[in-house]
Amino acid sequence: MKNICVIGTGYVGLPTAACFADLGNRVVTVDIDEAKIAKLKQGQMPIYEPGLEELVERNVKAGRLFFTTSYEEGLQDAEFVFICVGTPSAVDGEADLKYVRAAAQTIAQTMTKPLIIVNKSTVPVGTGDWTAEIISKSQPTPIDFAVVSCPEFLREGSAIADFMQPDRTVLGSVNRQAAEAVAELYAPLKAPLVITDIRTAEMIKYASNAFLATKISFINEISIICERLGADVIEVARGMGFDKRIGDKFLQAGVGYGGSCFPKDVKALANMALTHGMHPQLLNAVMEINDFQRKQIVLKVRDMLGGSLEDKVIGVLGLAFKENTDDVRESPALTVVRSLLNQGAQVKAYDPMAMETASRELKGMILCESPYDVAEGIDALVILTPWNEFKQLNLARIRAAMRTPILVDGRNLYDPEAMRAAGFVYRGVGRGFHGEGKLPNGG
Ligand code: UGA
Fold first, then answer.
1. Which helix (DSSP H) or strand (DSSP E) does residue 66 occupy?
2. Residue 365: predicted pLDDT
3. Which residues, other chains included, contact 260 with Cβ-Cβ below 8 Å and sequence gap of 6+?
4. Rounded distance, CA 197 to CA 175, Å?
């Protein structure tokens, strides 16, 4: 058992704290947001993440997991402190480090004994060294510390499983002993370990996210070519995926990637390259294709409705950036809804988890109770998030409720032939083989 303090109760901090506690450690979780901590103390989760509530409850009951707004309390017995605060994009795409800076300063001013400070937030290459400088400068009296970079690779919606069964653990530090001490914390997970210098560890995180985003933009570009040339992107991806050098993951064409990580991290990496005098050609293309993919959906709907969205009623299924989360940050669905509204359409929307978060970001949609409510009287239906509950809809009921049976499936959840047989005018993404044919602008 080790004593661990986790700073931040977001999508990374809270699963990290709960999982470390579940591995038998004593974990004190600190957040400066009083409302969040008050909620957590009552057993309410500030975010939706499958399995998290049960895990938190179990570990609180077992006396291994605690919540507080006080750094003093958090650091009192801590041997390790994990910084898991947000690093949003600043206006120019650079990562904004104000929360990391504030956490580092407060740790420095509060610590009373030697401490290993582990950074989990995704930060520009060089931030580890900068954090060490801030801590040295902010300590009232010098106390030993080491900074270790330990990038997090968990995904929202499967955070607990990803934490417990990671593909690898990456640790970077100038202090090998400190990195090895952190490795001990991860030892029960039995994942391959990479111990390296701090800048390389920081770069591994950006390069991994940028590579995954590139895979998605790659298959999205292929999907557009498939549509034009009469091939089916799903079969193309399947055929490619059996090649072990390619792999079958992250080859689902759709509305493009969203969320709090890929868009921000690809932009930040491109920005790091730019500010060091390089031209990030591939990263720029990845971002451009991703933007185009969102526009493409709106163009398809407009095209199928005869060229105008004015006064049309469009139904939207899915607002979250992906399934199993309430997170709408950089959600492709919100970009699509915004564009539909801007072009004069009325939008009726439903999401199993993200209606509240979405309505905070975007006004003007009519929020519905179910997919069947959405379908009532609409001119077209658009699927934007691949929630399981959208995969087995009562299609006859949906079609009967719609004014015109136009369906644009932005996540390729349905089989084009079956949808046509069910009476829909259907288009997916990149499924030219099924006669979806031309792009809206001809070709
Ligand atoms: C991503 C990475 O997968 C994690 O490894 C990483 O830790 C995390 O970012 C982070 O940096 O914190 P996440 O953003 O939670 O995780 O979600 P993903 O499952 O990676 O999906 C990202 C986006 O890509 C979603 O919008 C998803 O719908 C989209 N996507 C994913 C596709 O369009 N096609 C695919 O084949 C896969």
1. strand 65-68
2. 97
3. 11, 86, 156, 327, 329, 330
4. 9
Pair type for strands 313-317 and 380-383: parallel
Residue 387 CA from chain centroid, whole number: 15
Nearest-CA residue for ligand 1 atom 25 is 257
DSSP annotation string for 143-198: --EEEEE----PPTTSHHHHHHS-S-EEEE-S-HHHHHHHHHHHGGG---EEEE-H
CA distance 409 to 324: 18
Q: Mind listing the domains of the chain with CATH numbers?
A: 3-196 (3.40.50.720), 198-443 (3.40.50.720)
Burial of 276 from C-beta contacts in 10 A (0-12 / 13-18 / 19+): exposed
pLDDT tens digits, one per residue of 369-411: 999 999 999 999 999 999 999 999 999 999 999 999 999 999 9
Match 């291994």 to its residue by tokens. 64
Residue 368 annotated to the active site: no
* Rounded Cα gap, residues 238 and 319, in angstroms: 27
Q: How far is the CA of 301 from the centre of ligand 1 (A)?
A: 25
Of the candidates 5, 150, 261, 368, the residue annotated as catalytic is: 261
- Which tokens belong to 401? 């409720």
